[in-house]
Amino acid sequence: MKNFIEKIWDESEYNYAAAYGFIPEIHAYMHDDDQSRDCMLVIPGGGYCVCTPHEGELVAEEFYKRGMNAFVLTYTTDITMSVPLKDQPLQDISRAVRFIRKRSEEYNISGKKLIVCGFSAGAHVAGTLAVHYEEISDVNTAYSNISNRPDGVILSYPVITAGELTHIYSIQTLLGKNPTQEELDYYSIEKQVKPSTPPCFIWQTEEDELVPVENSYLMAEALHKARIPYAHYVFPKGFHGLSVANDDFFNGWSGGMYVMDQVFKAVEAVRAGKGVNVSDERRAELEAQFPDNQEPVMPEGLPIDQSWREDAGLWPSLAEAWIKRL
After folding, report:
1. What are 89-115's pLDDT values in tens digits?
2. Nearest Cα to 64, choosing from 19, 20, 104, 33?
3. For residue 216, which of 33, 71, 204, 225 is within the disulfide window of CB 3.0 to 4.6 Å?
4. Residue 294's pLDDT is what?
5. Rounded distance, CA 59 to CA 37, Å?
6. Quick one: which of 100, 195, 196, 215 has its CA closest to 155?
7. Who has greater pLDDT, 299 or 78?
8. C-alpha dist (Å) from residue 145 to 92, 139, 260
């Protein structure tokens, strides 16, 4: 396997106020041969506050094993919840698609499908690109004529709406606490589906405790009305954050911590008194969660029912079959 990291923005192009030295990047998981393969771009979730490691590398490795060349996008998030992200994550994923396609020969994906696979808030990033890609120009003329339309989009336990059934903290981190109705409508993906929206694969569990399962149904209904090809699976059991639900996941996999780099940079800045608009309350929370700027203190894990792999764990195989039909 070939692994490498590429920053998708030049320093002069990227100006998010709370970046603290971070620049969005892709991390590659490529086959060490010259065979052209379909491409999977993985977008981890994390409530727009972090990029969650197990929704990055674990997913990329799963689809690498299924024959694809895969990339994980570490897009802009804000652990301080102090500087609304607005369109920066959307700009990041748009640039990432163009960045990969510009290097299609080098990455051995020329003439093949490029699929975007997002999780939770990362699925909101992916879904926003799916419905708004035509509106996203690129500041760099080297990318402006390259398509940013995915060939297919996988939405895993997705945040879809910015309305009543949303995950409120994701939308607050994205838009701030006082978004306009125009902003809420723009980022309610179910309201923005159009005939040019790419095919979608949606999956979630009925008992998702963080993002109401109605989000998946809202998207499926909107796709159906617009006559966009889609697949929609709702599994009866399983908590939010199941990732690929494969053997590695259930056996306590850990890794892929590179997606936390921007978080550690932000926490370091906050500790040094250089946080941008960070309240004293949020600073205290971050210092407790990230002692000595090391790995975060996580709450007790939820019990994992090994039987979930028998249904929810099938979604990567179902998605693989769906990709082949595109």
Report:
1. 999 999 999 999 999 999 999 999 999
2. 33
3. 204
4. 58
5. 17
6. 215
7. 78
8. 16, 11, 32
Q: Does residue 298 register a pLDDT over 50?
A: no
Task: State how far the Cα of 121 lies from the Cα of 44, in Å rounded to an integer.
Answer: 8
How is residue 245 written in tokens?
A: 């639900």
Rounded to 10 deg, the angle between the 315-325 and 57-65 helix axes is 60
Residue 198 DSSP label:
P
Distance of CA 233 to the CA centre of its chain: 19
| Neighbouring residues of 178: CB distance < 8 A, sequence distance ≥ 6 | none
CA neighbor of 241 nearest in space, from 44, 7, 82, 26: 44
Which phi and psi angles does 295 have, rounded to 5°? -60, 145
Helix axes 261-271, 280-289, angle to 10 degrees: 120
CA angle 237, 241, 242 (to 5 degrees): 55
Q: How far apart are CA 238 and CA 205, in angstroms?
A: 6
CA distance 231 to 237: 19
Question: Is the pTM of the predicted complex or chain greater than 0.90?
Answer: yes
Spatial CA neighbour of 322 closest among 241, 314, 55, 132: 314
| Strand extents, DSSP E, 100-159 | 114-119, 152-156
Q: pLDDT by residue (tens digit) across 116-132?
A: 999 999 999 999 999 99
User: What is the average per-residue pLDDT within 227-245?
Assistant: 95
Sheet with 25-30: list strands edge to edge: 2-7, 25-30, 69-74, 39-43, 114-119, 152-156, 200-205, 230-235
- Rounded to whole angstroms, the Cα distance separating 211 from 205 reads 10
Average pLDDT, integer, range 8-28: 97
Question: Tokens representing 164?
Answer: 């009543």
Q: Cα–Cα distance between 326 and 116 in angstroms, integer?
A: 13
